[in-house]
Amino acid sequence: xxxxxxxxxxxxxxxxxxxSLFVEGKDNPSVRFHCGQGMLVTLLQxxxxxxGWLPLVGWIICLxxxxxxxxxxxxxxxxxxNDRDEELPFIGKYxxxx
Length: 98
Fold this sequence. Notes:
Layout: H1 5-10, H2 17-22, H3 29-51, H4 57-81
Helix pairs in contact: 3-4
């Protein structure tokens, strides 16, 4: 299972989940799981980009979502390093690629 560790770690870096979509390990259920979780982390980055143009509220939203994204990236990478397939807290159940 440790064969795809780097690919699973890259899944949690925004937009690099695309690598795990197109590599040979995409048929591996663990790689697919972490790819789906990584898609959610990327979505956390896209939402503030849409709302970020608002003067004060946009800055606060960007800060909150940016912090959440960083925390989820760390949690996901720790899960990969420990060879666990655990959903991210609060948002993990909404992964649409499993």
